[in-house]
């Protein structure tokens, strides 16, 4: 075990996977110099420019190249930098990577990981702060992973790289510097398994990314008021561990969903809809979503603090359905 | 050029196979036997044939929405293709893909593609893999004059160039992007005038002369295998049929089109004459090839018709590996 | 009144708006020749090549050009052809058109309509048959309109062109040739107002696009079994007429949502989640979604017929929650 | 060139205004007064200044992530800019946009942009509107060497070319895209080598010579206003500061950087010397301009600091018109 930051855990996992499997390649803008996100440092020195490639600013081109390389036997790990840049290369993700296997009648595998920094809180404004999980969840053929701790990040990224399908791996910017205990050796965490970050009996809070930490703080605080909050981190949104969510909701009979993207047509909508269909009879109260309001991410710190779901708003939502 | 007479006759057969396949297909679409969007390669056979004749099986190609010619030239089986077009379980994609998504990874065919301009980056990626793995496979990306205006094509050219990848960009300049003349969608006379901006060597060939296409490709392949990087080959040709089967073709004159079907322009008539003139083959041989291909296509149709449709249980399969 | 096809109603509306407002421009691939969708016929002859522009294959470029033209006072109506092509130009829609006003502090308007053909049923396979409403709904700053009849198409498209915001206007391919009564004169239908296509009291069916017609057939059939089905067509998904949906659900106490896109993280998820929060106490049964299964659109007619939600599946869903 | 002495001195002042603004900004970021991503224009002042000096107020520009210089040169107010960078209600965007999203439609500034390559299509659209409306406004799109590899830039070039639009593409070749040298992201020595492929006339200028930039732009503007279509101007310059404030700059040597700050390379030092050598202005005049600008920037900072932050009620405003 070692204490390390989420960014370090990701870096270490890439190193381990590159050592394990010579087919793993790394592509992205400025990765050789460590990347603007500061995640790919040291890779070039260790593995050389043939395996760690700097890409020109042409996301559609290099994501497409990763798709082609994956189709013929490589395992590219691609850095998109900010998830907001997906708009210039979405085609290669959703029409090519995710659909090729199906369209070709099962005759190809596209083992590819697309890493992207997600979320706000760093004053980066509307085009560098978005959360777009829901878009990726809507793409059959894709997997979507979103860890909230260094430990989960390491195990899930290893699984993502070893997976034979295209995987979008979301990294919450506000969590890059967050620390946690991480085993030094290699390990995997299966994609599609939720994790109960805290057990509770009165209400289930499903949270992702940096919202997990906030939900845990809320759970801690509310415990002293006698409210027992269960915090469930799906860890992957596609596939979604419906069973774990349903089991929890059947126990607590109340559900609050917390995420950083806008509420409308966001990832929480799917979770709420799924529960409203499959655990309706267990529900004792309306399903609440705590998420961003329906506007772009503002620059001003005060506005952004209001934009990103706060512990207060989580508390209010829980209280509203406990009454 | 180092082609034996046999190989030349083989190229003739390939072109004819494409032509006959497409002619049959047109008939099948018009009679309602086949549905979906179908884009025919008639008139452009020399391009795919010339290019693929210079490739090994392990070399890669990416194709387009107008892909049947590329597939057949790279060795694709007409019965499996026809079955796919009939949406049958025995087709290349189990009936799930259709005309715009046929692939055969074992033949290095990385797929037709319904998105214009999506193929070139994928070919670049296959080239990257070849370079990284140290094998000598080259990647060929076929794309049209229209596609050359798509941003991804520009990006792919730049990537292949800076990484010096074994990629050959084959431009099928067939005078049209859908209903729009080439002169109306770009100001350059030739797409390949853009190659120099990426420091990619380029060559322009008569795309209806299969041997010229072959020769240019052979050079490009040699250069790619020697690690000298990408080449662009622009093939001037003409789309004889409408953009898709059913296109009302209001945007061009009958004369313009007919002029490309003359004996000195049609790629197959031209090559046939040459084979005869140069005593590479006699009429009997060519006629019997014609007959064989006719039979092959008929059999392909029969095979397709007799094959079962995919079972409903197939719907949710092959989404994930 | 005249009987006309949906495609004709759209064409006529563009003509009327171009006549009314000289700032309206039309851009798209092959629009001068009437377009591959067959919707823009006659426009060039009537308004000339300065107002009806053929675009090269470069969606990011010409959508971006429309954004720029809109920012300085034009009202471009852009044809994307198939909605599936959005992957190459999403950036100009979601990061530019939709966010500019907010990012610039309210100092710009982007009056732009992006028309796109949506949905399956024509054997066009995975890259020409998708429905992607949910993606567009998730974009603050955008409006999303999805008519199901020629009458609605005409009134809504007129509103979309007159709107000062970017509007995605979805045209269901299977409906292009469907006919309906349409007034010959110009009129508008407000964006954001749902329409009850049939009143009923036992269950609310919210349906979009070609699913509206299927829901109406089902309602007709079930009426003879004594089941009274209310069919509500939101007509625009963003803004969503939440009030109309809630009013209907409060009356019927049962909700089935039917749409053509995949269920997972689809538009129905938002509708279900909204109702599960705001009308929970009125609901007598789980909320059901009838939508496409989680796979790309298959080519084979038999598979595609199974893929697209059928009347049978709607009936089953209704029966399941009426028990 | 038809510049009066006064106009030349005005250009000097503009360059200095940019420099001082950026130097102050760097200080404010490093001291934690301003947050977010901030990309400085130091060293490239002659480009924005030379270009915008040849424009009217009603002409349009699209800018980039490195936009402050373009804005100031096009007439943007330093106090409103500073207030925006301080995220204040009085800022250009009410504090909602920040460095990468400043716009001033009244000055024809169609916005900085956080997405590399997104500006050129937007400039093309403004040019399309000018042509359609029959006014003589031109559009200028500033973009970098790095951006030139983005597909949308290629698409914008092609559109401007086929539609013969009044658009000027100004390439700021500052030797870097983030941490990557230009030579490592493209094989062409100059971005403008690609212009011919679109039949767009191009010119390469010393981007640190404000008069050379002005002259080239004036020509391009004239041609655009006369309906002769787009021009590409490549300005060779150098990014003196890191990619963003805080960049560790591991990828270049101190010597390389310093060489661009010498008296014969720095655009402001060079122009100052010229103004003096050619007796266009005396040292006193320039010094007092320097002082005025210093004061202006200080006042801008004061204004920004004293301005209120946007009220929380602003959060949901300006989403829809
Ligand atoms: C991204 C995208 N835009 C538009 C289309 C529609 N489309 C299909 S083929 C085609 C024309 C392609 O022209 P070209 O590249 O010259 O190939 P050709 O058809 O002439 O073989 C267009 C516009 C598409 N499939 N994908
Ligand atoms: C689509 C997109 N990809 C990547 C980035 C990250 N990024 C911001 S600036 C930049 C480099 C731009 O280089 P260049 O165009 O030369 O402009 P310069 O910074 O040198 O002024 C990159 C890669 C981005 N903002 N948008
Ligand atoms: Mg063509
Ligand atoms: Mg640069």
TrEMBL record, chains A, C:
Protein's UniProt keywords contain tRNA processing: no
Cofactors named for this entry: thiamine diphosphate
Every Transketolase-like pyrimidine-binding domain range: 4-178
Keywords: Oxidoreductase, Pyruvate, Thiamine pyrophosphate
Gene3D superfamilies listed in its UniProt record: 3.40.50.920, 3.40.50.970
UniProt-listed InterPro entries: THDP-binding, Transketo_C/PFOR_II, Transketolase-like_Pyr-bd, Transketolase_C
Cited NCBIfam families: PRK09212.1
SUPFAM superfamilies tied to this protein: Thiamin diphosphate-binding fold (THDP-binding) (SSF52518), TK C-terminal domain-like (SSF52922)
Protein name, per record: Pyruvate dehydrogenase E1 component beta subunit
GO molecular function: oxidoreductase activity
TrEMBL record, chains B, D:
Family matches, as Pfam families: E1_dh
Cofactor(s) named in the record: thiamine diphosphate
SUPFAM superfamilies (UniProt xref): Thiamin diphosphate-binding fold (THDP-binding) (SSF52518)
Signal peptide: none
Annotated coiled-coil segments of the chain: none
GO BP annotations listed: pyruvate decarboxylation to acetyl-CoA
GO molecular function: pyruvate dehydrogenase (acetyl-transferring) activity
Domain of life: Bacteria
PANTHER family given in the database record: PYRUVATE DEHYDROGENASE E1 COMPONENT SUBUNIT ALPHA (PTHR11516:SF60), PYRUVATE DEHYDROGENASE E1 COMPONENT, ALPHA SUBUNIT BACTERIAL AND ORGANELLAR (PTHR11516)
Protein name according to UniProt: Pyruvate dehydrogenase E1 component subunit alpha
Species whose genome carries this gene: Desulfocicer vacuolatum DSM 3385
Taxonomic lineage: Bacteria, Pseudomonadati, Thermodesulfobacteriota, Desulfobacteria, Desulfobacterales
């Amino acid at each position: 075990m070692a204490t390390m930051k989420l960014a370090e855990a990701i870096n270490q996992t890439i190193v381990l996977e590159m050592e394990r499997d010579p087919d793993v390649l790394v592509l992205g803008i400025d990765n050789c110099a460590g990347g603007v996100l500061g995640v790919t440092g040291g890779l070039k020195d260790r593995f050389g420019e043939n395996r760690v490639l700097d890409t020109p600013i042409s996301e559609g081109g290099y994501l497409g190249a990763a798709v082609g390389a994956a189709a013929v036997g490589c395992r590219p790990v691609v850095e998109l930098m900010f998830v907001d840049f997906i708009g210039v290369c979405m085609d290669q993700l959703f029409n090519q990577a995710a659909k090729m296997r199906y369209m070709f009648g099962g005759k190809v595998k596209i083992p590819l990981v697309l890493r992207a920094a997600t979320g706000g809180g760093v004053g980066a404004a509307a085009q560098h702060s978005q959360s777009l999980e829901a878009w990726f969840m809507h793409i059959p053929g894709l997997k979507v992973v979103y860890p909230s701790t260094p430990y989960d990040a390491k195990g899930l990224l290893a699984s993502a790289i070893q997976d034979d399908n295209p995987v979008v791996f979301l990294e919450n910017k506000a969590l890059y510097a967050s620390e946690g205990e991480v085993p030094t050796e290699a390990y995997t965490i299966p994609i599609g398994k939720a994790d109960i970050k805290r057990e509770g009996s009165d209400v289930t809070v499903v949270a992702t990314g940096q919202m997990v930490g906030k939900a845990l703080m809320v759970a801690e605080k509310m415990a002293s008021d006698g409210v027992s909050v269960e915090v469930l981190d799906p860890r992957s949104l596609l596939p979604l561990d419906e069973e774990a969510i349903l089991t929890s909701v059947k126990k607590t009979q109340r559900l609050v969903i917390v995420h950083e993207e806008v509420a409308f047509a966001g990832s929480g909508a799917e979770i709420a809809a799924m529960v409203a269909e499959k655990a309706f009879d267990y529900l004792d109260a309306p399903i609440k979503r705590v998420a961003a309001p329906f506007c772009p991410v503002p620059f001003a710190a005060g506005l952004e603090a209001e934009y990103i779901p706060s512990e207060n708003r989580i508390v209010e939502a829980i209280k509203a359905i406990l009454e | 050029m180092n082609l034996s007479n046999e190989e030349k006759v083989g190229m003739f057969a390939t072109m004819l196979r494409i032509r006959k396949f497409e002619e049959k297909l047109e008939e099948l679409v018009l009679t309602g036997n086949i549905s979906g969007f179908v884009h025919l390669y008639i008139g452009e056979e020399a391009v795919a044939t010339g290019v693929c004749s210079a490739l090994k099986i392990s070399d890669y190609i990416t194709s387009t929405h107008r892909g049947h010619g590329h597939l057949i030239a790279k060795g694709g089986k007409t019965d499996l293709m026809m079955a796919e077009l009939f949406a049958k379980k025995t087709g290349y994609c189990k009936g799930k893909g259709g005309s715009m998504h046929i692939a055969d990874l074992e033949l290095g065919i990385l797929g037709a593609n319904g998105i214009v301009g999506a193929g070139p980056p994928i070919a670049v990626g296959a080239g990257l893999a070849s370079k990284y793995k140290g094998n000598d496979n080259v990647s060929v990306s076929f794309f049209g004059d229209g596609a050359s205006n798509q941003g991804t094509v520009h990006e792919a050219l730049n990537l292949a160039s800076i990484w010096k990848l074994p990629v050959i960009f084959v431009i099928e300049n067939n005078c049209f992007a859908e209903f729009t003349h080439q002169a109306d969608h770009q100001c350059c006379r030739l797409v390949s005038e853009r190659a120099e901006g990426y420091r990619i060597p380029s060559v322009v060939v008569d795309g209806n002369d299969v041997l010229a296409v072959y020769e240019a490709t052979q050079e490009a392949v040699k250069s790619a295998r020697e690690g000298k990087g990408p080449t662009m080959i622009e093939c001037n040709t003409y789309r004889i049929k409408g953009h898709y089967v059913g296109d009302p073709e209001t945007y061009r004159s009958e004369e313009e089109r007919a002029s490309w079907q003359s004996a000195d322009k049609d790629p197959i008539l031209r090559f046939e004459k040459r084979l005869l003139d140069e005593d590479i083959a006699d009429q009997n041989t060519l006629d019997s090839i014609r007959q064989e291909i006719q039979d092959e296509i008929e059999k392909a149709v029969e095979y397709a018709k007799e094959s079962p449709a995919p079972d409903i249980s197939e719907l949710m399969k092959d989404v994930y590996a």
